[in-house]
Amino acid sequence: MNFIKAHTLLALLFAAAPYAFAAPAADNADRTAAQRAEALFDRYLSLPRPASAGTGRPAADGRHYYASIPGGGIVRRAYADRSVCDTLLRPGTVPALAGYDFSSDGMMLLASGRKPIYRHSFITDYFVAGPEGVRPLAQHIPYKRDAGFSPDGRTVVFSSGNDLWLCDVQTDSVRRITADGQWNSIINGTTDWVYEEEFGFTRAYAFSPDSRYVAFLRFDESRVPLFSMMRYDGTLHNRAFDFKYPKAGDPNSAVTLLLCDTADGTVRTIDTGPDTGQYIPHIGWTPGGELYFYRVNRRQNLFEVVLVSRSGQRVIYREQSPLYIERPSAADILFIDAERFIVSEETTAARRHLYLHHTGRGLIRSLTSGSTEVTQIVGADSSRVLFMAATTPLRRDLFSVDIQSGSCSRLTDGEGWHSVQCSEGMNYWVDTYSSASNSGRVTVHDSHGRLVDTLADRSSEPATLPREFFTWTTERGDTLNAYVILPPDFDPARRYPVLLTQYSGPGSQQVADRMSHDWCDVLALEGIIVACTDGRGTGFRGEAFKKQTYGELGRRETEDQISFARYMASQPYADPARIGIYGWSYGGFMALSCALKGAGLFRVAIAVAPVTSWRFYDSIYTETYNGLPGDNAAGYDDNSPLNFDERLSPRTRLLLIHGTADDNVHFQNTIEMARRLNSRGEHYDMMVYPDQNHSMQPDDMRNVRVKMISYILENL
Prior knowledge:
By secondary structure, this protein is mainly β. Helix 5 (555-569) packs across helix 6. The strands form 10 sheets. The protein has a 9-stranded mixed beta sheet, with helices on both faces. Strands 14, 15, 16, 19 and 20 form a 5-stranded antiparallel beta sheet that branches. 14% of the residues lie in helices and 37% in strands.
């Protein structure tokens, strides 16, 4: 989502590297701005970061955890005293350790190397480590990914060539479960692009507790349109990378649920209902050994959990909304025994709360209520649930609720942001805490919340650029949360330029009381005020606040950011002629929308990887919040920046930035925006990053931020 002076697309398309059109030769002032930008980015890299301790993952015994050590080693530590009990993998044993897993009997599955596919998925080599040493897993099968142990530790399942395979850990012999896998056609046991991106998982299989069966999803992509993304890679003849990407309204993959009997290799189809256009975002097994799956209709306003029991199928949970159900994840439902489960749900009480359900009797009781909003289930057993909640939208705390009595207590102390990892059995929990003015600490607590150990403590380190939180009210009467970062030598008698930073997407949050920094924070060191507000549609203020943007993505959010710009411009310390705005992805869509609808209010606008029409973006995300294009054409078109190209003010310096290999928000978005602006002879800037993805990886994460800092220093 960023910049260069552009009047024709032709020059852009022949760009071999990022550069600015019609830019004069760099003079001393330009070089000074570039040097200042480099120095500021280095300052950003040196800003305080929250305390961390690398606690890895919990061990099965509930008393230890695994942790990585430098050089690719793995150790096992005790929660109680931090001692290293044993070294499980010595550094350098496996080249480029990219991940690890443990079997129930202590064997290790090691991923070596990482060749990315999309955001979460990657190809790797696997090794098995045990008492007899370390050896490759199924070395003769190439392009392996998403491997995992069966519960009994005797089998590893993995994907290769879009097929699912079983490997005997002891003999290294493999069996192919499926044989119809094909790129851009059939996928078995892993997810397609849109499931990976929007439902956030790639392993699409689950073993039964007794290891006898493995359930998996099959994706038929044959009807999904093909998207071609051009690759350059410094070659003489560039090539296109083709992959299946369903844009809003397009056909999705047809998804089926299959069940393999590992004893004889037979595979059968599980009936998931008559709706062939539905989503199946999770499959799992109850502690009693019964298969269950989620299903969500295409409109995404009906969510059901279906139990595949020995006596037949039945819906054991249903959630419905006239607007939408937030995309459900595996963590939203947790079984505590063979028949009871905990649900995290937001529609019943208009805020997300916890409910106890029974597979046969339905809802038993609510476990939480009130204005505190549940954000995560941390752990549960038959007597209590540990969960994170927002006591205020800006903060997070750990709570415990007794399942029988409903008694609820807060376990964390310190006002700010707590993130908790729980041991197996909830004997211990590790609390990572910080606030906007405090780098915080990492502590270990027992099941009652008593302090056991302090793993890291940076609470004495002062914040370099503290955030000041406040609320303000729009012209429409909405009270919104915000923060401001003032220059260290702030003088209220002076007038300062102001940069607004925001994301603004549905359910998101930027205004939070925790230690975190973005690149733009260091602009305060150059006398620029940095400010942020969470407008309507953002999260953790209840269902009604979040869902009011439904069907009109961008309208209310843009109104709120423009109102915030006016509010900041009205402050006696702000220069109203020097207001800027920045955003990336959804935030880029917002920055661009504000530049076009702001009537010259913004002196500078930087839009990185912006969506310019929701018709260009993927089906699951867009249709969740905007409905189906066939039902809501106005919601897609009335707020598209493409339809406001004529409203770019001559005083607004607009910078568009995009990577050509962005598989998420396609470069198409910026190209079509450029086409509209060019047709009107508008003056703007553009920065193109060849072969970089949505995050400007693998090469230009630094470059893009230095360019943005320089652009702001020169123009704001």
